Amino acid sequence: MKLNKIWMAAVVVGTVGATACKKEGFISYNTNPGTIYNLKPDEQFANAVVATFEADFEYYYDYYRIMMPWMQYHTAQNGNGKTFMAEVGNFNQRRGYFYGRVGNVLTDVQQIIDAMPAGEKEKFQHERAIATILKVYYAVYTTDINGSMPYTQAFEARYGGTMTPAYDNQQNLYNTFDAELKASINTLKTATGQASYGNADMFYKGEPANWIKAANALRVRIAMRLLKRDATKAKAIATEALANAAENFAGNADNLDFVTTGEHTGSQNNWDPTAAIFRAPKSLLDFLYATNDPRLRMFFQKNSYTQENFDLAKAQEKLPPTAVFNPRQYVGSFASPDAAANPANAKYYTTRTIRKNGADLVLDTLSRVQYRLFCPYSNGGNGLVTFPLLTYAELCFYRAELAARSIVGAPGEAEGWYEKGVKASMAYYSQMAKDAAIVEYSEATEAEINTAYEAPKVKWNAATGLEQIAVQSYIHFFKQANEGWSVYKRTGFPNPTSTIFPWERVMADGVEQIMPRRAIFNIPVSTDRNYTNAKAAFDEMAKDADFGQGPTDIYGRVWWDKK
User: Fold this and answer.
1) Which SS3 state, helix, strand or coil, does residue 163 take?
2) Half-sphere exposure of 305 (CA within 13 A, CB side)
3) What are the phi and psi torsion angles at 29 (to 5°)?
């Protein structure tokens, strides 16, 4: 198991505390490019890693409040409100994080190495390549819902470059990303006599072979984004990235993820979802329940209606005399506001308080999210938190889809990759849940995983294979809602007419709600230094027929999200 303690960055490489406490040095660094010589690449790389996972506002707004409800990964306590599909307040934290916390610091690493004297910088090319891979990862994540954005000229002002960076359109961004990843892979394969990040790399300890695998997984993710826009380019990227088995993820041990102590997310703060009492969504819970999927108990908690509690409630007249015990303790909440507000469904949202062992106990019909999977210190927990970035299961699902579409590999190969992806996802969530010390954890054994795979709607069926791949990808991205959203936008699954996974139709006042596709684009005021470049970028995006009604239209599409 990979374990990264975020506070170790300060101890191992002397970075977090130094930059936080020495304000004068920080100001000097930001105003005088010459002070770059006083920084070390491993210090800034560790800073960038820490900054990547300090995104508590992002989790509170982008994940908990917006993307996860949209994607029916959870609902609000009493069901979703009528306007939840249109609520985007404080959405798109990633853009600010990329420019103000992550991308700028990783650019520092590149600049620090490039500014080294000849004969010295050659020893740090592995470190430069690794910084580039992580920078590209976050840039891919950022452009995903923002489309055109500054990249090739971004972050140059600090080093004497332009203060008005041009916006790269998304097509060119993907070309640039892939070129940078290819170059980084080549450097990691060929450069010798290299320095290593060691403990400053809280993912792979500076191991080049692991970063090559991660870079190739990211290249395949990019290829999947291009399938509808440039199938030829997508095929070329995926074919090259997957050509060498030794340079690709081979199991969950290869995952690019960040595992750290629960101190990182703490409790009773933006990371902690307990106060919101997020409910398990009916569609996802019912599917996992029907297929005996072990991820059910990794994602969601049982309700409190045990036989004993039920009997106590009847004895204390908290239940009507006609009430009959239902042994099913996994019950989901309606994602549709109309369904949640329907008086016939009020029984699911009703709680009762009984006395048990001298204390009050709230009986709740609906299952709650396993909070500790996201915030291990919730309700007195003491586990570890995992942030997945790129995983073996994700790559398996991509390979299955590419094979099923006869893009890379033969159609007959799809089944094997799909099965590997499903089983790897179940095993991975079992490990994450164990590390997080979730409520009532029990391991997903190999036998249980094999049995779950045999469920009729899970076991591979060539006739419905592409739908199955999309559905299982969606389930796998429970902790990566942006990627689940991307699967939906790219494939159209899940949906209410699915034969495999019938998603709940979301209705508000009798009107079906439409899934948003992107973030709001904030056009700067005309007095902004970079107004001309920003407006030109938005005007160019607006030429696409799918762009929508304007920059604030969250139902419009960015370039890769083609109908």
Assistant:
1) coil
2) 21
3) -60, -40
**What SS3 state is found at 354?**
strand
> In the structure encoding, which two tokens stand for residue 135, read together?
């920078």
Token pair listed for 16: 């977090």
Cα 58–Cα 133–Cα 408 angle in degrees, nearest 5: 100
Distance CA 178, CA 280 (A): 38
The pLDDT tens digits for 193-227 are 999 999 999 999 999 999 999 999 999 999 999 99
Average pLDDT, the chain: 93
Token digits for 491? 């494939």
- Phi-psi map region of 25: left, alpha, beta (phi>0 left; psi -120 to 50 alpha): alpha
Contact present, 222 and 230 (Cβ < 8 Å): no
Residue type, 319: L
Say how far residue 329 (Cα) sits from the centre of its chain.
Answer: 28
| Bridging pattern class, strands 507-508 and 511-512 | antiparallel
What pLDDT band is residue 511 in, cutting at 50, 70 and 90? very high
* Distance separating alpha carbons of residues 176 and 170, to the nearest angstrom: 10
The values of phi and psi at residue 231, to 5°, are: -60, -35
Rounded to whole angstroms, the Cα distance separating 378 from 404 reads 42
Residues ≥6 apart with Cβ < 8 Å to 216:
181, 185, 241, 242, 247, 248
Residues 6+ apart with CB under 8 A from 532: 164
Q: What pLDDT, in 10s, does the model give residues 400-430?
A: 999 999 999 999 999 999 999 999 999 999 9
Q: Give every CB contact of residue 253 below 8 A, 6+ residues apart in sequence.
A: none
